[in-house]
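Q: Fold this one first, please.
A: Sequence and structure below.
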Amino acid sequence: MRREHQPLFAIMVMTAFLGTAAVGCGPQSEESPASGVVSEPLPSWSEGATKQAITRFVTRVTDPASPDFVPEAERIATFDNDGTLWAEQPVYFQLLFAIDRVKALAPGHPEWATTQPFKAVLDDDREALAAAGEHGLLELVMATHAGMTTTEFEQIVRDWIASARHPKSGRPFTEMVYQPMLELLDYLRAHGFKTFIVSGGGIEFMRPWTEEVYGIPPEQVVGSSIKTELEMRDEGPVLVRLPEVAFVDDKEGKPVGIHSHIGRRPIAAFGNSDGDLQMLQWTAAGDGPSFCLYVHHTDGDREWAYDRESHVGRLDKGLDEAQARGWTIVDMKNDWQRVFPFED
């Protein structure tokens, strides 16, 4: 397998366990048709150029009198998930899910106590886990994400997301979402946009909870996937997850995933890392108006501060291109009055 098409979690483990450390345009009013109450859009966003850029773009493409008007059916907005809609430090959350799955399954696999890379996970040995290489890491992923039906896997994800806690905040992972981005999703949908997740994370890992957390239904989630096949059992047909990668929805894979799953080029795209760069480039290359935004993690107090040198969510080439092309860059420290919903 070529390196650029490695399964996402192999990349996650290789990078995240190399020692990444946590680091402690004018707005317009909205009127509710039902109540007639005027409310300020994007209340957790600071007044300034970033908020103005968002509201001005939305006005341009939704005003029928505007030369940049876009019909509602074509108002497609795509969002990365990790680091864009929810946090991704100190490691990708789905990697923590995979590690927890190894530990949960270990009693049924006594051989894992002496077999790498499982031994490394059970011993919390980061160096040994990184040393397992791509083959070992792929073995780890397939052991935890395959070999069950899609229905069984969905329930496993639901149970984990309901009980697991973030290693630093102690909060459920679904509370580690960004309040300003939740407001942005609602704001766009209120103006006729259809919002999609386009993430390198597993599509079936995200689908069980994205509608409740983001208001994005399963059919509007695009992600990496493993192969499945139909199997006839006594209780009827089931879909079984196989230990083989089907598609990696990262970097150059994102425009491919958008084309395959959505069938329309987005007019707005939101990301936070170099893995999102091709999605933003694809969006900007459309014939009509477009809007591209990068979330820049600059707040080491309320969240984490990282970009070019980070092993998780690296933003290097994307930051340069965003600056050169005039894309909108969110300075999390200054542009967001509030980061997480649970903040005062």
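Q: Good. Now the second chain.
A: Here it is, same layout.
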Amino acid sequence: MSKCFIIETPPTQRGVYANKDMSMKKTAALSIALTALTLSLTAQADVNVKLGSKERVTHLFAYPNNCNVICFRNWTLEQTVEHYLTQSVQRDGYAAAKVAVHNDNDVIYADITGVPGGYDKPLSALLNAGDLAYAGASKLNADNKFAYNWYLFLPLGMALENRKSVELLHFPPDYSLTQAQDYLFSATTDRWSELLTDNGIPKEQTPAYQTIIDIAPIAAPSNAGKDLENVYSYFTDYQTNMVKQLTQSAVGTSLPMVAFGAPVRAWLKQQYNVTVPVLGLASISPAGGQSVPVLGSNHPSYIWNAADKSNYGGDETRADEAGLKVMGQDLSAACWQAGMGQKPTNDPAALLKQCTTNWQVTNKVETCKLFFSTVRKLTPDQAAAKCRTGEVSRQIKQLQKPLPEMKNAQL
């Protein structure tokens, strides 16, 4: 499958630069190798972190993650913490790092080797924010508004230090906790990872771009979105603390943020008084002197709803038309995220224009192929043939026009 990317950085993808394919692969491999070498040279310290009392750690790590009489994974508290912290060090790029967690008189400690000095600071900051989330969830439960099948779930296992961008989402699906014990294990995050890869980010590097803040830190069934819209005020301190914390890089620069879905974009309006429609840009200031560029986007799963023919009276042609438009928007948003993550000094507006022109005009046929291969599950050859048909050829010329109206609009 060909890839398209237009940011002014060394390209790592195929497609519009196919004639440079071999040199680009070498450039990408060299870049990854240099990054790994740099991290290995700086990762020389051993860090000991006091995580807190056994009770606190049990709350903040949602322990036990997956027990209902029989435990899906019968881990101890210490093993659970080791699991999530190991995910973090790996996603930060410290492949040789080791995590050991132990209990000393009901106080939990983590020993992390092979990471830079100071690595404990972002971890401690996350857990301190988690205390705010726990307080909010406790109040929610005291008010009889916490459902029996909800779980407090912090964004554990994310990159703590070497983040490239931040993703603002609604809530994590319950199976990310109960089945996978992996915050990035979901249909939503998998799809967006693919879109980042379509925009030149190597697959193994996409977790650095997908540091997530959920405005409702509650793992819940996928159909719980409407109910969770009523809980945001319980987590205001947690939400604003996390946005302030995670949109600032380790060296103090601002990281770009993508706001996914209508509930999240409405929350931004309420909290920061900014309006970010799909492919709309804004800037927020979570802390004094900090300016964070924010892009509005569809929810990563919205395309499945938009492209569902039942929303158009069974008209598959209209469903394809809507799906193609959403695909163009999503590729454009991921392009912006990739470009700003690689080079935060990019002009956000100029980059967005470049990205939308690429995916909705210049390479609209590639957008079409990606839609039919990833959403309609056609083979690459079938997708290419579909995009050459008269009806679809007309549709892809209209990618920048508004979406057709549909029933049951969600996300």
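Q: Anything worth noting on the second one?
A: The mean pLDDT is 90.
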